[in-house]
Amino acid sequence: MGPKLPAKWVLLGRIVGVFGIKGWVKIESHTRPREAIFRYSPWGLGLQSGWERHTVIDGEARSKSLVAKIEGIDDRELARELIGTEIAVPREEMPAPGKGEVYWADLIGCSVVNQENQDFGKVTGLLETGANDVLIVEGEKERLIPFTNEAVKEVDLDRALIQVDWDEDF
Question: How many Å apart are CA 14 and CA 43, to the nearest integer?
C-alpha cells in the first residue's frame, strides 16, 4: 500500500503486473469503460516515496488486460517494482460529467436523507453489482442503497446531499 491519496484526487486504478521485457505494466482500471484510464496523462503514481506524476507514453487494451508504457520505466525489473502502485489524477483534470451523470468520487462524503428527512449518514463507498451500482451509507448502521432512479431521488453535489426513497428500517 502506497501513500495516502491526496485530497481532491481520484483513484483510477492500480498496476497489477508486468508485460514483456521493455517496462510495460498491466493495469487494473476503475474507469468505465476500462480503457478510459488512458485518457489521463500524466498519472499520479502512489510510490513509497510519495505521489509522483508520470507521463503515459502508450496504452492499449489486450483481450483480458490493459497494458501501459510509462515514461522512465524501460525494463521489466523497474516495472516489477511498480506492482501494487495506485494510479490517480487530480479531480480538476477530469472532464465534467455528462447530463445526469456523476463521478463516484463526488458521491463519497455526501449526506444521505430519505424523503422524511431522516439522516442515514454519509456515503463511504460504492459497489458495482452488475445490475446497478450500490451506495454504501454509514450512519447509525450501514445501509446498502441501490443507485437507481427509483431509490435515488436527488443528488445535490453543491450541498453534498443525496435524497433517497428508502425506508429507515432497511
Answer: 11
Q: Are 56 and 44 in contact, with CB atoms under 8 Å apart?
A: no
- Going by C-alpha positions, the residue among 28, 32, 123 that lies closest to residue 68 is 28
CATH superfamily of 9-93: RimM (2.40.30.60)
CATH architecture of 104-164: Roll (2.30)
CB 88 within 8 A of CB 12: yes
Residues 6 or more apart whose CB falls under 8 angstroms from that of 119 comprise: 111, 112, 113, 139
Sign of CA dihedral 90, 132, 127, 113: positive
Mapping DSSP onto H, E and C, the string for 3-26 reads CCCCCCEEEEEEEEEEECCCCEEE
Kindly give the pairing relationship between strand 111-114 and strand 161-164. parallel
Domain parsing of the chain, residue ranges: 9-93, 104-164
Q: Express each pLDDT in 110-159 by its tens digit.
A: 999 999 999 999 999 998 887 889 999 999 999 999 999 999 999 999 99
Q: How far is CA 139 from CA 43, 49, 111, 122, in A?
A: 34, 35, 10, 7
Can you give the pTM of this predicted structure? 0.77
